[in-house]
Write a structure and sequence with these properties.
Radius of gyration: 24 Å
Largest sheet: none
Number of helices: 9
Number of domains: 2
Distance between the termini: 26 Å
Structural class: mainly alpha
Order of helices and strands: HHHHHHHHH
Strand content: under 5%
Number of strands: 0
Length: about 160
Amino acid sequence: MGVYLMVNSIGNGFNEGTGKGRNMTSRYLDLLSDKFDSEEKVATEIINLEAILDLPKGTEHFMSDIHGEYESFLHILKNASGVIKDKITQIYGRTLSERDRQVLATLIYYPEQKLEYIKDEVDDINDWYKITLYHLIKKLTFISKKNKTTNGLISLIYFW
């Protein structure tokens, strides 16, 4: 109900009178009407965005004295402070062996080096590509669902 009143107050509060406030509000409401066909859908979108803002934040990593430690620093960045390996474990749990999960993680961290190594280790490289691409797509799908953003109000926020 609070969101519904807020959406209504955008239109009612600023549209009375003249001046810049009226023009900005009118433009904002026009953009909203292009994206949503009812006030209820606007309110639903606002509620969804507020829920997204309340989701737990990602890992923040603060480092100092990294002079001369390029390789170590790069490794921390590439493995996302261990988050990538955790996500692989969440997705596959016991359906992939520990070794296969490690191979997948290393492929994500160091794709060029790992692919060169794998070419020498695997008998059927085409089969390995198919299976690995399936796993990578599954991981990306999982991550994109966890990091849901919307095309509605988000684009309006960027517009302003």
